[in-house]
Amino acid sequence: MTTIDEFRKVASRVSNWGRWGDQDQLGTLNLIDEAKIAESASMVRQGRVISLGAAFDAQGPQGRMAPFRTNPIHLMTIDGGDGPTYAEQVRGWGNACAEMIGSVFDIGPMRFNDDYIMMPLQAATQWDALSHVYYDDLLYNGFPASSVTSQGATRCSIDQVSRGVVSRGVLLDVARHRGAATADPDDPITPSELDAVADAHGIEIRGGDVVVVRTGWYGAFNRSPRNYEAHSAGLHWSCAEWLHTHDVAAVAADNPAVEHGGMHVDTVFLPMHCLCLRDMGLMFGEIWDLEALGEDCASDGVYEFQLVAPPLRVTGAVGTPLNPLALK
Asked: Which of 263, 251, 274 is nearest to 15 (CA)?
């Protein structure tokens, strides 16, 4: 067990506070410049598009994993059952909304369906905004925790990432490297293993990259959602320094938290969240579906791609759902 004093020493070493100015709210996404985006476009050679997004439905991993979150609830407001007699049925009923729809249906043959969804913004495939995690009452770059109000985050919110996330993506397929469908959840991924996987894949980690780590967890969950374990393999907290040394722009994984869930630092829950989001300003992507990408990369031996992963611009939000795309 690492002491809190050692944790704070690492926090000081990886801190990016002030690196891009005192008012910066983008953190390591600043490492993705025009040249980096142009480089990422050169990764597209075959014209293949691979979705990395999980399904947003009632069968997701929330509930048991995070009781304060639910799986998405999808409701229809107008559907195909509102057929030929709909206008007649609602006429004079007194429901203004139904009568408005009925009047449209009365005009002619056109019909339409409509729906909405209720969900936590971090229900499935997601980005964590820099305002998601903090400690000592401070967010990234020294903004006060009180800047996240009941009306939303006024600093470091996900809508600050208005330009989206487009960069060179690099897959580190840890599960495949270990020769397992799913990496052992009791064996956290260390910096030396990340180096070994990169070497085995013949891939170089470069500044501004988005590193994507496959543990196999989401594939296992998808195969048997009723029997899944929230506990998963993930990055050891010491990988924060590895990410900092390599000037990585963001990190994503197919597990619930990117990092390993064990208690590795005395009194600090999810220490890598603290170091990356709060100290480095490095966003986390969680619960990405990397099964198809893993198969594709293993097939052609190419573990780099253009990653297009724009967040929804939800004003003041501390996270966002998304459907990231890998272009090869």
From this structure: 274
DSSP run (H or E) holding 29: none
For the chain, the structural domain boundaries read 4-67+121-327, 73-118
- How many other C-beta atoms are found inside a 10 Å radius of the C-beta of residue 125? 26
Residue 43, H or E segment: none
Q: Report the C-alpha gap between 129 and 106 in whole angstroms.
A: 47
In DSSP notation, 76-106 reads EEE-TTS-TTHHHHHTTSS-HHHHHHHHHHH
- Per-residue model confidence as pLDDT tens digits over 210-226: 999 999 999 998 887 76
Q: Which string of DSSP letters, residue by residue, matches 174-220?
A: HHHHTTSSS--TTSPBPHHHHHHHHHHHT----TT-EEEEE-SHHHH
Give the span between the Cα atoms of 10 and 73, in whole angstroms.
41
Distance CA 141, CA 23 (A): 8
Residue type, 74: H
Residue 138 and residue 325 in contact, taking contact as beta carbons nearer than 8 Å: no
Quick one: which H or E segment has residue 322?
A: none
- Spatial distance between the Cα atoms of 11 and 140, rounded to a whole number of angstroms: 12
Contacts of residue 66, defined as CB under 8 A and 6 or more positions apart, other chains included, come to 256
Q: Tell me: the pLDDT tens digits for 105-125?
A: 888 888 888 899 999 999 999
> Cβ distance 258 to 234 under 8 Å?
yes
Give the mean pLDDT of 248-269.
91
Determine the Cα angle at 130 with ends 250 and 44, to 5°: 25
Sign of the alpha-carbon dihedral angle for 93, 98, 100, 106:
negative
Both tokens of 42, joined, read 């050169």
Q: Are 24 and 82 in contact (CB under 8 A)?
A: no
4-67+121-327 placed in CATH 3.10.20.90? no
